[in-house]
Amino acid sequence: MKPSLIVNHRFGSYPIYIRTGLQECCTDILGKFLAPSGKHALITDSHVNRLYAAAFIQTANFDLQLQVCPAGEASKSFAQYENLLNSILRSGLDRQSTIIALGGGVPGDLAGFVAATFMRGIPLIQIPTTLLAQVDSSVGGKTGINLAESKNSVGAFWQPQAVLIDPSVLLTLEREQLTSGLAEVVKYGVIMDADFFAWLESNVDAINELDMEIMTQLIHRCCVLKAQVVEEDERETRGRRAILNYGHTFAHAIEKVFGYGVFPHGHAVAMGMHAAAILATKLNLADQSLVTQQAKLLKSLRIPHQFPHEHHDELWNAMQKDKKTVAGELHFILPTRIGHVDLVSSVGRAKVLESMDLAGHTME
Ligand SMILES: NC(=O)c1ccc[n+]([C@@H]2O[C@H](COP(=O)([O-])OP(=O)(O)OC[C@H]3O[C@@H](n4cnc5c(N)ncnc54)[C@H](O)[C@@H]3O)[C@@H](O)[C@H]2O)c1
Ligand SMILES: [Zn+2]
Fold it and tell me: What digits encode the pLDDT tens for the residues 112-155?
């Protein structure tokens, strides 16, 4: 089977395979990457385990040790990380072994960090099963866990050997998880691809119905776009990767102030994108039509994006502490038109608070 795309990085490249019914041909693909006689680990969470792991292990003709962490963000912890390391060591994994991460961004980030550090690094294969993981977290090589007070603060850049994406697993995903992933999809259109934004507008019904042909194309386009950005700025040193943070300065503050998990990440991002678009108009960087067009697409994809009415002062304070502040100064990624964003610094408190306020009242 031919890869759908190839992602390049400093040390080489890896293929991404995107196809419905991938499970049936996964043995062939895995055969290219896994040592046939070795022991390997399949790391997943409790939900995905129930839905897909058993079938996967049966089809894949390899010695796969199943490792299951509890579903949810809390598994990105030192305790789970240490458990997994001890457990795969006891199961007999060694330097020739491969870790397969099956699940959303949580098992992806956790298993990725295990792969990055076990025996100083062993091969990793990502099989993302949430839309967010398929279009975002499985591409780009970031792996890691959380500190009690700071998300994703411990980790490593560790590129996979391959990414296997089966869009049909999205059929079992809860609507909320789906729309959370769709917010990141809309984000790619706004930050860098006006044609893709227009394509999304004209395929709203098919996306809402999870038409598999359309979802396959959608995931493919997002992977191409993310790959393009991370190839230009693999280790987030050149600033290019910062465009992926569109909406995220607001979103991280919302998640922090309201508590993680109160809003799904993508919904917080959509609220942040709505506020950021309004902020861009307040700074005369963009027209009101951009705000309207973006809100219309978010709404038609049923992505909640109305900004919370409360705690705006706390949100502003939380933004000052965001780890994406550069040299102590807060930066925003703001759109100038659909398909283009700028990095903007020295934005005053009054304009930010006014945008939050307006984003809570104007839906379109
Ligand atoms: N590494 C990166 O570049 C990167 C980028 C973005 C986000 N992330 C991380 O990703 C995480 C969020 O990812 P997520 O939203 O995928 O979370 P998640 O892995 O917790 O998945 C969300 C829920 O969906 C369930 N699930 C997964 N696949 C399913 C399926 N096919 N059918 C039914 N249920 C399914 C999971 O069990 C879980 O309950 C965060 O920790 C975030 O920090 C990492
Ligand atoms: Zn995000």
Answer: 999 999 999 999 999 999 999 999 999 999 999 999 888 899 99
Query: What CATH topology corresponds to 5-172?
Result: Rossmann fold (3.40.50)
DSSP label at residue 2? -
Q: Is the dihedral of CA 131, 125, 17, 228 positive or negative?
A: positive
pLDDT in tens, 246-296: 999 999 999 999 998 899 999 999 999 999 999 999 999 999 999 999 999
Section 296-309 average pLDDT: 97
- 5-172 and 175-361 share one CATH topology? no
pLDDT of residue 362: 58
Separation between Cα atoms, residue 258 and residue 252, nearest integer Å? 10
Q: Do the beta carbons of residue 67 and residue 43 sit within 8 Å?
A: yes
Q: Which residue's CA lies nearest to atom 34 of ligand 1?
A: 173
Give nearest CA residue, ligand 1 atom 7: 137
- State the CATH class of domain 175-361: mainly alpha
Amino acid letter, 232:
E
Ligand 1 probe mutation, 50, 109, 130, 143, most atoms within 8 A of CB: 130
Q: How far is 81 from 145, CA to CA, in rounded Å?
A: 8
> Domain segments of the chain: what residues?
5-172, 175-361
**Nearest CA, atom 16, ligand 1:** 104
Q: Is any atom of ligand 1 closer than 6 Å to the C-beta of 48?
A: yes
From the list 240, 268, 269, 245, the residue with the least C-alpha distance to 334 is 245
